C-alpha cells in the first residue's frame, strides 16, 4: 500500500546511498578501479577510471560518478 504521507513520498524520490569526494591517487585500467584519498585521509578503492590522477572525483556507493571541482574546505566547530 502506498503512503499518503507527503514527506515519505518526497524522500522516496531522492537518490539513496553514500556520497563523498576524494582525490584520485592512482588508476588501474586493467581492473577498472581507482585509488582515492578522502578529505579525512582515508584511502578507498572505487570502481571507475574516468577521472585522471591528481583530480578530485565524486564517489557514490563505491563508484566514481564524475569529476569534482577543486574547492576549498572549511571546518567550523559550533
Summarize the structure.
Strands 3-2-1-4-5 form a five-stranded antiparallel sheet, with no helix packed on it. The model has no long low-confidence stretch (mean pLDDT 90).
Helix content: 10-25%
The strand order across the widest sheet is: 3-2-1-4-5
CATH topology of the domain at 16-68: OB fold (Dihydrolipoamide Acetyltransferase, E2P)
Q: Indicate the low-confidence ranges by residue numbers.
A: none
Distance between the termini: 43 Å
CATH classification, class level of the domain at 16-68 = Mainly Beta
> What is the CATH superfamily label of the domain at 16-68?
Nucleic acid-binding proteins
Question: Which whole number gives the mean pLDDT?
Answer: 90
Radius of gyration based on Cα positions: 16 Å
**DSSP E strands, number:** 5
Large-scale geometry = extended
| Helix-strand category | mainly beta
Number of helical elements: 1
Descriptive overview:
The chain has 1 helix and 5 strands. It has a domain at 16-68: Nucleic acid-binding proteins (OB fold (Dihydrolipoamide Acetyltransferase, E2P), Beta Barrel). 12% of the residues are buried. It has 78 residues and is mostly beta strands. Strand 4 (56-60) and strand 5 (63-68) form a beta hairpin. The mean pLDDT is 90. A 5-stranded antiparallel sheet has the order 3-2-1-4-5, with no helix packed on it.
Amino acid at each position: 500500500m502506498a503512503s499518503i504521507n507527503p514527506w515519505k513520498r518526497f524522500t522516496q524520490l531522492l537518490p539513496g546511498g553514500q556520497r563523498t569526494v576524494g582525490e584520485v591517487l592512482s588508476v588501474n585500467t586493467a581492473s577498472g578501479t581507482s585509488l582515492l584519498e578522502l578529505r579525512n585521509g582515508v584511502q578507498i578503492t572505487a570502481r571507475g577510471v574516468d577521472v585522471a590522477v591528481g583530480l578530485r572525483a565524486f564517489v557514490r556507493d563505491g563508484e566514481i560518478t564524475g569529476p569534482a571541482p577543486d574547492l576549498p574546505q572549511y571546518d567550523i566547530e559550533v
